[in-house]
Amino acid sequence: MAGNKTVETTQSVAEFLAMVEPERKRLDAMELDRVFREATGFEPRMWGPSIVGYGRYHYRYETGREGEFLATGFSPRKANLSVYIMPGYADFQDMLDRIGKHKKGKSCLYINKLADIDTSVLSELIRAGLDDLGKRWPVRPS
User: Has domain 13-134 been given CATH number 3.90.1150.200?
Assistant: First the structure.
């Protein structure tokens, strides 16, 4: 059975964030790091070449597939800031209504720039996502 393509690496988070371009996105990424650290209490780790993750969990599906994955995190992508809040937004509509300008995927929030959202609501959403994930799989520091 194939493992996850996205795995924790030894790449430095600080070095990765310092290389984000353009400068506005770099500053947003550094601020997101602060928000995630405060909301989760976890030190970040790099997952793959471009995802900053906070916490991890071990999953095992009924099919037998199992693995480790980041609990929450973000990636400063070229098009936008991708925020990964697992496992999804089923019960979080109130927060999504209050967060500001965004698009959403199944377990991602896409933000053009941090100024478009309320970071205090993002903190609530990060915490709620971790709490929801923790009901299924124990979440622990990376």
Answer: yes
